Amino acid sequence: MLSSNNNRSPTNTMTKIDLVAFCSFLSLSKQIDIFSMLLSLLVVFVALLSSSAIPLTIICLMIFILGLISKYYAIRIDFDRKLFVYLSEHVDHLPEELLAMDKALVNLQLIKPYQSSRTVAERQKGILSLFKKQIILFLLQNCLIVFMVINAIITS
Length: 156
Prior knowledge:
single chain; 156 residues; mainly alpha; 0% strand
């Protein structure tokens, strides 16, 4: 993949469609985020309605905390997606744009100075790692909801 230096070879090129496809894939994070937040709001209401049932309230609290952590990942993924959208619009000057972007991120203290020489592939791996974590948190939320429903059915 292409790094922020001026290496250009047939195997080191990143096309606009590669970046656009990656951004489109990352947009799925938004739908997961919305559904996760809806689940979080739902369990807040359930917890408020069943404040006397301590185990249920604890499960609701766990689901809510997972939703907050998922929201953190969604914000980071959306920020990175917007940076990749920008890069896809400036793919002709990608090495220079990567350097400028890294300098801005270092100035804002969003990355460490030693992280500023990452390739596009390394950046994509990092974002995909965040996306996987968001999906895992979302699945955990759903598993806890299913457990909560089954537990409510059994105990009633």
